[in-house]
Amino acid sequence: MKVPAFNLSTDEIREELAPIRHPFSIAVCRAKNPFNIGAIIRTAHSFLVREIFLVGTEPWYERAAMGMAKYETIVECPDEDAFLEAVRGRPLIGVERDHARTTLWEAEMPDGLVFLFGSENDGLSDHLLAACSQVLAIPMYGINHSYPVAIAAGMVMCEWARRRDPRGNPSLR
């Protein structure tokens, strides 16, 4: 038997979570592997992101989100231009190794930012890269060229939290 979390409706849970959401969002160019989008949504819920932008029209695997999608604000943008219009005026930080100008450890992370992740095959388009105020890379130490997009998204969200949460950042204690 499945028991509803906190014995509240989905809308009541969303209402309770709204004031404690964090001042950043993520955007993902629809990945070719639909499982990754669901996994990213599940991870984004764990960090209580403001919203999740899905760029493109490819399907995603809802079961991979483990039911967390219903608690999240998911903004579906049919293409890159619609996405850029939706985030106009907000800092856009691309996560793209080949075009990075800084690293995850050094990048500025202002309130209201949107982290942007490309698809597994194509990364971020030139159009989206040009719209980014920063492009960062996650340091790598092996011979592999890139992280899986779901892992990269989790690592970036974790770094954001480490910087902002007093439990992860001794300077905030």
Question: What strand order characterises the main sheet?
Answer: 3-2-1-6-4-7-5
CATH topology: Alpha/beta knot
Number of strands: 7
CATH architecture: 3-Layer(aba) Sandwich
- Average pLDDT over all residues: 88
Q: Distance between termini?
A: 41 Å
- One letter per element, helices H and strands E, the order comes to HEHEEHEEEHEH
Number of helical elements: 5
Q: Domains counted in the coordinates: how many?
A: 1
Structure description:
One of its GO terms (biological process) is RNA processing. It comes from Polyangium fumosum. GO terms for molecular function: RNA binding; RNA methyltransferase activity. This is TrmH family RNA methyltransferase. The chain is α/β, with parallel strands linked by helices and 173 residues long. The protein has a single domain, classed as Alpha/beta knot, CATH 3.40.1280. Helix content is 29%, strand content 17%. The protein is built from five helices and seven strands; from the N terminus they run H-E-H-E-E-H-E-E-E-H-E-H. Strands 3-2-1-6-4-7-5 form a seven-stranded parallel beta sheet. The protein is globular and about 45 Å long. The chain starts with 9 loop residues before the first helix and ends in a 9-residue tail after the last helix. 30% of the residues are buried.
Write the layout of secondary structure elements.
Elements: H1 10-17, E1 24-29, H2 34-46, E2 52-55, E3 74-77, H3 80-86, E4 92-95, E5 102-103, E6 113-117, H4 126-131, E7 134-137, H5 149-164
Parallel strand pairs: 1-2, 1-6, 2-3, 4-6, 4-7, 5-7
Helix pairs in contact: 2-5
